[in-house]
Each structure stands twice: as C-alpha cells, then as structure tokens.
Amino acid sequence: MTLTPEVDAHPLWIENLRRYETLGELRRSPFFAEWGERIERFLAIPQVVRLPGAAPRLRSFVRAASWNVEKGRRFEDIARLLEADPVLKWADVILLNEADRGMNRSGNRHVARDLARRLGMHMVFAPAHFELTKGVDEELTLQGENREGLQGNAILSRYPIEEARTIVLPVSFEPYEFHEKRFGRRNCLWARLRLGEGALWAGTTHLELRNTPACRAAAMRCILERLPGAGEEAYVLGGDLNTNTFGRGTAWRTLKAASRLLLLPPSRVERQLLHPESGREPLFAALRRGGFEWEGFNGAGETARAPIGSLEETRVLPRPLRRRILGRLDAYGGCLGLKLDWLLGRNIRGLRAGQARDRATGVESADPGCRAAVHTGPDRLSDHLPIYADLDLS
C-alpha cells in the first residue's frame, strides 16, 4: 500500500455521526448514504508522518517497546519516560495503543505524532474509532470540546517506513450504542520497516475487552489470516491483547467471573491471571499455529492492575454478592494483577541480557520485561506498564 500522508477528518462527520440512537438508524440515514464510504475509507487507511533526519540509535539489534498509553492524557510524563528511561530511550520501534487525536481529555493533541516528533521518529497512525463523547467519568466534565475525536493505534520508528496497512477486525462488541459512544472498528496496524539490507514487519493491535477469550482468539485468527508481506519475513507484533482470562460485558459473564474469584484460592487465580497463555486464552494457540512465539519476548509479572471496585460489571451484581466479592478480594489487596500486554515474534529471535552489544554505543541487550511507572490511582501515567524486548538482527 502506498503511504498516505496525514489528512484531517471532515468537520461535518462528528456532528452527524453522533446524532442517531442506533447504528441501524445511522446506516439508513441520508448522511451516511452520502458520506459513509468516505468515513470508512478514512478509518481503514493508515496515515504516515515522516521526520527528516530520523535514524536508529542502535545498529546491532532492535529494541522494541509497546505501551497502551491510556489515551495520552499524561502526555508530558509519558514523553519524559520515553526520553529518559535508561531502557526505553534506546527503543527504535515503539508500538502504541489508545493514542488520541483531537480529544479534549488529552489536550486536543495528536498524541502519536507529537510523541514521534519529540522522540525523533517517523509515525504511522491507524484511527480505530471516532469518539462521539468526551470520554468517561471526569473526562465528561472537562472544559472544552473534542476537535477531531479520534483514537487508534500507532507505530513510531527511527527506521524508514516502506509500507503500511490496516487490518480491520471482526466486531465482537458494538460501541455505537454504548454509553462511551464510538463509531468504527478495532484494527491491527502493520508497517514494513527498512533495516539496512533487511526488513521487519512491526504490528500493533488492541483487542476488545468486553467479550470472551474466544472472541479475542477470533480477532487474532483474522490478523494471522491477513498477515502482510511474504511468509519468510521477520515480524514483531505487540499490543494490549486484553488477555484477562475472563468473559466480560454481560451479567452472566460477570457472575461466572465472580464465581471463579469466590471459589478458587487467590494464589491459583493470581497464577492464572499472570499466565493467560496456559490455556484460558485460546488466542495463544492461534498464534503458535501461525508461527508466532512469546517466549523470549516477554518478562514475568503484571502489565496492568484492575481495582475490582471500579469494574463496570460489578454494577450488575446483587448488592450482597457484590459486597461478598469485594470482601473476598481483600486477599488480593483489592486489585487484580493482569498480564494484558505482549510482544510476539515470528522468524526473529528475542535476545537475553548481554547476548548482543551495539558497536557504536556500547549498549548491551537486556532481558525482556516491563519498565516501572505509576500505573494505578489518579497520578498514573497510564493504566498499563510499557513493555520491551530486544530483537536479533542477524
């Protein structure tokens, strides 16, 4: 696909997209008959911003990072961590989820583009949704309005971007008729990066939260069936896969999750949440069949933490049951530690500490893992931790 420069959404789109109560009404409207094809094409085509002079900091191996930046609301803190952290500052490929563009809650900035410029990197952005509200909770009361109202996935790279494409994922939850009203589809963004004489396909995706492990596996199969490039090329895929091991989004799924928390020993639940690849998330079986591995690309431990009292599903539980569950969670400290964020490789090897040394800078490869950051409470940079891995170029 030819690289498409950055373009703006039409100013009439947001106003008209939000007018209708149901997706069916929208799709039957004269507005959508006139504009629908252009809107969906806009969402389906990734947009690139090149930065003259961008050059990789490491030449002997690739350091890749992935981070769900929770909309980019704490832009300055996020940028400072990526600039100054002793591991992340050497990342020449950064995969982003939940990157706002023109949302009031994040200062109406283009989060991915502004981060790319700050870090001296090229950028590809794939919008996933038009956000038709100002967000949730306190975001709704902030002064100001959205400008472009977009959120999506992005790839930042100091390597040249040769090609980019978006894979649109199947719908497993429709957000248009949800309280956080959106129009669009979740996607997977791929970019082919030129690495000297070779190339690397870098991809990022953010899978749906309000569904089941089977739905996430179906989305992953869609990605694998539409994998760009030739099969023998090198691939790294990262992102927030929402591998929480629970079904979510309905009262029945919430009751099943509650039963699991009530009946199983907390130590067993904790192991399951930190090892979703052990059987409760079938997307890993799909990945392995597709030639992707996670061993050697990920560290141990949580990448996100969920305060159980803040989960929207708890509102559907009977009050006595809700109190019992919350009491039971005293053993967890009131929170669930989750492993949601992953880096995955195909036809490429993950490095361990000291296995490679960059000739120009003296930087040595590191074990894959997470970087420390405030990821809970009102002062968090994001509700996810940034993860990273070093990749063998040979």
Which descriptors apply to this entry?
394 residues, alpha+beta, Deoxyribonuclease I, Chain A, 9-stranded mixed beta sheet, 5-stranded mixed beta sheet, 10 helices, 25% helix, 26% strand, globular
What would you say this structure looks like, in words?
The protein has 394 residues and is an alpha+beta fold. It has 10 helices and 16 strands. Strand 10 (198-206), helix 6 and strand 11 (234-240) form a beta-alpha-beta unit. The chain is globular, with a radius of gyration of 21 Å.
Blueprint (SSEs and pairs):
Elements: E1 4-5, H1 11-17, H2 23-28, H3 30-44, E2 47-49, E3 61-71, H4 75-84, E4 93-101, H5 111-119, E5 122-131, E6 150-157, E7 161-168, E8 182-184, E9 187-195, E10 198-206, H6 213-225, E11 234-240, H7 251-263, H8 266-274, H9 283-289, E12 304-307, H10 319-328, E13 335-338, E14 341-346, E15 369-370, E16 387-392
Parallel strand pairs: 1-2, 3-4, 10-11
Antiparallel strand pairs: 2-5, 3-16, 4-6, 5-6, 5-8, 7-9, 9-10, 11-14, 12-13, 15-16
Helix pairs in contact: 4-5, 6-9
